[in-house]
Amino acid sequence: MVHNAYDSYELVGYCPTKIDSVESYGSKLLLGCSDGSLRIYAPESADSDQSPPPSDRHYHSETLDLLKEPYSQERTISGFSKKPILAMEILRSKELLLSLSESIAFHKLPSFETIAVITKAKGANVYSWDDRRGYLCFARQKRVCIFRHDGGWGFVEVKEYGVPDTVKSMSWCGENICIGIRREYMILNASNGALSEVFPSGRIAPPLVVSLPSGELLLGKDNIGVFVDQNGKLLQDGRICWSEAPSEIIIQKLYAIALLPRYVEIRSLRAPYPLIQTVVLRNVRHVIKSNGVVIVSLENSVHGLFPVPLGAQIVQLTASGNFEEALALCKLLPPEDSSLRAAKDSSIHIRYAHHLFENGNYEEAMEHFLASQIDIMYVLSLYPSIIVPQSTVLPEPDKLVDVGWDASDPSRGSSALSDDMESSPTAHMEFDENADLESKKMSHNALMAIIKFLQKKRFSVVEKAAAEGTNEAVLDAVGTNFRSFDSKGANKSNKGRSSIPLSSAARERAAMLDTALLQALILTGQFSAAVELLKGLNYCDVKISEEFLQKRNQYTALLELYKCNDMHREALELLQQLVEESKSEKPQVELTQKFTPEMILEYLKPLCSTDPMLVLEFSMPILESCPTQAIELFLSGNIPADLVNSYLKQHAPNLQARYLELMLSMNENGISRNLQNEMVQIYLSEVFDWYAELSSQDKWDEKAYSPTRKKLLSALDSISGYNPEALLKRLPAEALYEERAILLGKLNRHELALSLYVHKLHVPELALSYCDRVYASQLHQPSAKSHGSIYLTLLQIYLNPQRTTRDFEKCISNLVSSQNTGIPKVSSVSSVKGKGGRSARKIAEIEGAEDMQFNLSSTDTAKSDGDAEETSNEGGSNIMLDEALDLLSQRWERINGAQALKLLPKETKLKNLIPFLGPLLRKSSEAYRNFSVIKRLRQSENLHQVKDELYNQRKAVVKITGDSTCSLCHKKIGTSVFAVYPNGKTLVHFVCFRDSQNMKAGKGSQLRR
């Protein structure tokens, strides 16, 4: 026996006649005797208070009708039934008493007057009443009948079905009926009488069907009680094993009470259905339930099993270690005692948790710690290997809760855990390998349990801490001053939350939880989970966590710790150190992974918008190893280009051009004109170095192209942010003609640019391409007078080479004289190169060149007719007639034919002009024909419109009615001849119209005279 759930008390000591049935009504006992009489017993006390005594009110939610005191006979109703009363039941919702004797009768309460007798129930041996629907079913022999209460005092038969054998036990199960016959249990469909088998009944004891409060059924099979649902399907909740086969079973709250041959057995309804109590009573005939009391009837006496107050039961169960049963009883405490229930429930959970913890059931222990709502400090005190920050606000662990047992118990739990977590070799000198493995296993299991506990508590704890931080930040924003956090009570505050002092209980509790959770995750090898914890919102103590992670070489987690606390400099310094250690063949620290420069770049990406100088500082060491990724970092991070360029110029000048190239390739408008100019200056300086080197070896070739020169030419042609005048002054007089041509083109000095292509570079193809680019650009300028004038300029250069060469040499001489007074010659560049390439002096040279002022005439016009005459009259020995004819044949559609013919020499043969004049004349003729057709079409279209208008005017309709009047004489028109004015609305008599016309003609003749 575990504990006393019920106290047995003799209510009726002696009854003169044999008791066949018993029931309670209010505080009275109703005894059905074998002689057919009904004996009514009442408490002996004069004042029958139906409420429980004060000592019991705190432990029962229902009012106990029966009193725990001797009962005496109040009266006897003789002849209540002609035969022994086999069973009685109070129908409280109907205020009726149902009795089973020779038939089933209903009696009105409290007069016990018989109001209805179901004659068809004569010979019935078992029945079941459905109080919710008011349905009664009973069995007699092999028939099952169903009656329905009609709402008054009568009953109406609903159905009657046949069954295979005599029914021994029955009970409603939802809309159906479960019956137990001699050999098996069956489910009877109350609607159509269909039978479905459940399972065979026992061989020793008769069938027994018991309805549970949940609507399920408990079916007896000898000494085993089997749980099934309303459809007869077995449930997975196990089965009750009684000491012997019971004859009756009743269900009351948490207990199943069975009548066995020698005693009454009480078992818990919670798996595994343990034995709770046995009540030894001889010759017990029936057990029934009456609210909270179990009535036990013997042959001539009646006993009552009164439930022990729940508080006393809880104390008994807790003392004996049956915590599950104690917790189940706590749920039955009345709602008005919620504080008492919460206190007892918490106390039991804590004691149960300690019991489980001492026995190595760590996870289950944490579940009960969690259910007890105990503070995390108390639980963490059981883990001495986990270091948590000291608190200045939270109470000490031993003051958090009064668990109600000896102080030695917690200490035993703590010491036991200490033995598990940190087994001392001096305490266990003969500890073998198996014991050591078991200790490590227990340590791991204990840590896994505390991890789950902390994770379940974390959401609410962190939420409260974040809410407090938000409230204080709002108050601080409106000018409220908070006291600073005591330096003795707080460790190094993280920078990310430095504005919010950790001085509240919620945030200190959050710091303890996160710090402990981080350590437990690392100790159990859950490194990725620890990193994820640090990536999110956390309150880990920086100092404790930093020391812990450094000691265990968990650098990835340490980096996340620095990052989440905005300690970026510390993180980057550590990351640089780890990258160097990864490169070393013999690293000084143990690394769990390889750290690469790309990790530094990934770390720097989020900092580009907040701390660009820090990004530039720590990106410099990896620019040489990963230049492309580093420059892409600057571009993707939206760091101001001027800032990056200035930093690169100072710390990595060899990467400055690379950065500007990538910046320009992503967005031409993304960099300023100054940066574009600087990039061109850098290219130009490198080309000067290359030119000086080749010139010193007499290997210079104007048609040679280095990669830098190609970039320079592309930049000069594609971008417009540089100063072409300043660059022209830097170019040597006898080299870099293509660069000079591009710069002259930027200044609209097309004639000089084309002269360079033709007479210096000797590449007519480049000259033609240049003309095509200029022509295409002029097409988008409506203000341009002649789009094809650029081709005429090229034609002049071909036909008058001496004049264009003379003009070019004059311009070059002006530029050289300007260079001599403005900037050093190219030879000075080579001397600088010998001292270390493009150094600070070269940068100063570039910047000085930008400041030079030089004005070139940028007005180019096509040759006038007079110039054409001069060209044609000049000697033609050096003219480039073939190139000129090729130009005319290739671009005939873009050149003014008349002006071109004027420029050609007079001795030009007509057959050589066929490729030019042929398509030109065909195009002119075709244009003339097209214009003629268009003119005729427009004339035809105009004539068609006139005809349509005339037709519309002629088909106008005028309606003359009897009311129509003449607009001149104002008389009705009637059937007279009329005229209509062109507006279609004005009507006049024809005579009036004629007279008016004559009058106008007469006035006109007089005026002429």
Structure report:
This protein has 1009 residues and is of the alpha+beta class. It has a four-stranded antiparallel beta sheet with strand order 1-28-27-26, with no helix packed on it. Helix 4 (338-358) packs parallel to helix 7, helix 8 runs antiparallel to helix 9 and helix 19 (673-696) crosses helix 28. It is elongated and about 160 Å long. It starts with 5 loop residues before the first strand and ends with a helix.
Distance between the termini: 153 Å
Sequence of strands across the biggest β-sheet: 1-28-27-26
Summarize the biggest pleated sheet: 4 strands, antiparallel
Derived from helix and strand composition plus strand pairing, the structural class reads: alpha+beta
Count of DSSP helices?
Answer: 33
Which spans have pLDDT < 50 for at least 5 consecutive residues?
46-64, 398-438, 480-502, 819-877
Q: Indicate the radius of gyration in whole angstroms.
A: 57 Å
Topology:
Elements: E1 6-12, E2 19-25, E3 28-33, E4 38-43, H1 54-57, E5 71-77, E6 87-91, E7 96-100, E8 104-108, E9 113-118, E10 126-130, E11 135-140, E12 143-149, E13 155-162, E14 169-173, E15 176-180, E16 184-188, E17 195-200, E18 208-211, E19 217-221, E20 224-228, E21 234-241, E22 248-252, E23 255-259, E24 264-268, E25 275-279, E26 286-290, E27 293-297, E28 302-307, H2 310-320, H3 323-330, H4 338-358, H5 362-371, H6 376-380, H7 408-421, H8 433-477, H9 505-523, H10 527-535, H11 542-551, H12 555-564, H13 568-583, H14 597-604, H15 612-619, H16 627-636, H17 641-651, H18 656-666, H19 673-696, H20 707-718, H21 724-730, H22 737-746, H23 750-760, H24 764-779, H25 789-799, H26 801-822, H27 826-833, H28 840-850, H29 865-873, H30 881-890, H31 897-903, H32 914-954, E29 978-980, E30 987-989, H33 990-1008
Antiparallel strand pairs: 1-28, 2-3, 3-4, 4-5, 6-7, 7-8, 8-9, 10-11, 11-12, 12-13, 14-15, 15-16, 16-17, 18-19, 19-20, 20-21, 22-23, 23-24, 24-25, 26-27, 27-28, 29-30
